[in-house]
Amino acid sequence: MLEKAKVSFFLASRTITRGNKGITIFTVIVLALIFVQLVLFSSMLAGVTLKFNDLMVDFQTGNVVVEPREEERYIEDASALQKKIESLPQVVGTSARLKTSGNFHYKEKEMGATVYGIDPEDENFVTDLEDAVISGEFLSRPDRGEVILGREVSGGFGALMESKSLGGVEVGDTVEITISGKTREFRVKGIYTTRYFMVDAGAYISRADLEEMLGVQDRDFAQEIAVKTIAGTDEYETRTALLSLGIRENIRTWREFAGILGLIESTLGMIRDIMNVIGLLIAFVIIFVVIYVNIVNKKRQIGVQKAIGIEQNVIIASFVLQAMFYAGIGVILGFVFMRFGLAPYTAAHPVDIPLGSMSLKLDDVEAINRAVLLFLASIIGSVIPAYTLTQKDLLELIWGK
Amino acid sequence: MENKIEREMEKETENKNIEIGTENIEIGTENIEIGTENIEIGTENIETENKNMPDKKEAGTEIVVKALNEKNVDTIIEGIDIVRTFLMGEVEVRVLRGISVKIRRGEFVAIMGPSGSGKTTLLNQLGLLDTPNSGKVIINGADTSLMFDREKGRFRLHNLGYVFQDYALLPELTASENVYISLMMQGKSKAEYESAAAEIMEAVGLGDRLSQLPSKMSGGQQQRVSIARALAHNPIILFADEPCANLDSKNSKEVLDLFKKFNKELGQTIVMVTHEDWHAEYTDRVIRLKDGMLE
User: Fold this and answer.
1) For the purposes of burial, counting CB atoms within 10 Å of the CB of A232, is it exposed (0-12), middle (13-18) or buried (19 or more)?
2) Coil vs helix vs strand at B99
3) Minimum CA–CA partner of B153 in chain A
4) Would you write out chain A's pLDDT as a tens digit for each of its 401 residues?
């Protein structure tokens, strides 16, 4: 048994080291590309999903969102509730917001968008909106009659839905906002973009301005309190801690709050699984063809080996070992390319996609999983042609008769 | 009827052989290790080898197959009524039409005949590279028609050597690796197979080319490596299919001289297909074929 394995290894190693270098390089590159293809799509979707999650937390919801109780429209006594929540050690800050839909007018243009009424200082503890301002400045606490527009509302700045926007509002311009039948003029103080379409299609004014337009001034109402926790804190534990404070309001983690994003994420997950299966099938066919062509070219050699008494399983094993070597090197090259090349590159230079900017997220466990599958595909892809060929008559192998 | 008589006579010959002394038992030791099913028969035959080996005929002398049915003949290969047909599209071509041949131990035999006469096909049947449609090949007393492909492979590994027209060396192996690969397969130790390869390479005059790749060697050198490979494991029979077809006359002569040397000095049985009369002059006898039959 051992001597047979030795002969297989001997034949395989000699073919690899002394065989046609071009074929070896070609096969390894093909396998490396197949691995990259298998991992790339999955990494892209993982990157997109991760981006969604980051955007949700960093620019919209924080980690946990407290909402009015069932059948209530507002959270009452929001400031007291904020203080209560902020008493938890894991909470970094809270932002009580009012939220409604408003109609925006600018020159001839008109569009609808979500308007948030915020306390700018509180908001800065929860989201990174201030950092997302690309023109002008973020709101400050004493500001009245000023608005921060997302680029999908203002238009320009590379807005994705330019035609639906106000068509190029700039800082200092005045826009009219109509909320609950009341129309007011607001001076544009800043324009922001998170590169996340859904967040960029909104506007922020001071909570006092929105209270006034909604007719709920001096009542300390909020429609949601976004809660930011220390990095790494589990959202569900935070929710439990909030419940233990006796908070009766609805408490949702950002994942639950994600709504359509959650759907998109699970849809992408399904697509990723389907694409993985298709990718593997394609990979198998390519590997099979490459290795088959390689082996068929050695038909006569197989015949000679059989003729001089090298056993069939020894010959097959030598081809399988070669395929495993090619797959191993291909996987390593592909992994190195992804881990130390493409993934860091896209992290440094995110790719702009309609949903925002995206970098690749290479999951090591998934990469190992793909590597194992590719390895198996290589083994099967080499066993089948090697077995089929070694089964043939000696004369057919040696002389093609 | 004739075949029946032949078999009877052969049985008688074998019985005689058994009774003959055991002086040369060492000669058969290697074959005993081989472990073929018919080891006893093989050994008995080997014991008789030197004693009963008929004087070699003069080079190129043709011997009619029937002439082998003399007493005291030590037959190493016996082909009985071999028929081989091939399908060419839908047409069945009968290449061998019931050939019976006997080759004695230590003989150097040429198979000759015009193109399409079935020379290579006969060699392939005798050398277990192909299986006849009917008839049988008995080698060293072992009925190969009873063997499965796997057993035939093992039989070839231990007992037979091949020299092909186009050398058929494995291009990725060096000369010595080509030579010792079958010894590796036999399970010999590294020291054993390397020294055996070096020895036989020396014997074919390529002792200084052990680590050379076939692509760096001339046709004649490659064919000598091929001969070394065929002989490295001390086969009981060496089969050569037009070994000089791709060589010039100088290299052809070198190859044939080597064959003759191994045949004379070691008593190596050699069966060679050739179509050159001057090649046949090196051999003990010629089996002539025409249209798939003995001429």
Assistant:
1) exposed
2) strand
3) A309
4) 778 899 999 999 999 999 888 888 988 998 899 889 888 877 887 777 777 777 778 888 888 999 898 888 889 888 999 999 999 999 999 999 999 999 999 988 899 999 999 999 999 999 998 999 999 999 998 889 999 999 999 998 888 788 888 988 999 999 999 998 899 999 999 999 987 777 889 999 999 999 999 988 888 899 999 999 998 888 888 888 988 988 888 888 887 776 666 777 778 788 878 887 888 788 788 878 877 887 888 888 999 999 999 999 999 999 999 999 999 999 999 999 998 998 889 888 888 776 667 788 888 888 898 899 888 888 888 898 899 989 988 888 887 65
Chain A contact present for B130, CB below 8 A: yes
Q: Residues 2-61, chain B: which have Cβ within 8 Å of A?
A: none
Asked if A249 contacts A66 with a C-beta cutoff of 8 angstroms, the reply is yes
Chain A residues with CB under 8 Å of a chain B CB are: 3-4, 6-7, 10-11, 14-15, 17-19, 300-301, 304-312, 314, 393-395, 398, 401
B87 burial via Cβ count (<10 Å: 0-12, 13-18, 19+): exposed
- Whole-number Å distance between alpha carbons of A314 and B5: 44
Single pTM value for the model:
0.69
CB A375 within 8 A of CB A393: no
The number of beta carbons lying within 10 Å of the beta carbon of residue A172 is 10
| Residue B289 near residue B97 (C-beta atoms within 8 A) | no
Dihedral sign, Cα of residue B147, residue B152, residue B154, residue B155 = positive
Q: How far apart are CA A337 and CA A36, in angstroms?
A: 8
Give me the residue from A308, A398, A401 closest to B182, CB to CB.
A308
Give the ipTM of the model, two decimals please: 0.73
N residues, chain B: 295
- Chain B CB contacts of A305 below 8 Å: 170, 181
Are the Cβ atoms of A14 and B130 closer than 8 angstroms? Answer: no
B153 in A contact zone (CB under 8 Å): yes
DSSP state of A340: I
Do the chains contact at B168 and A304, CB–CB below 8 Å?
A: yes
**Under 8 Å between Cβ of A245 and A85:** yes
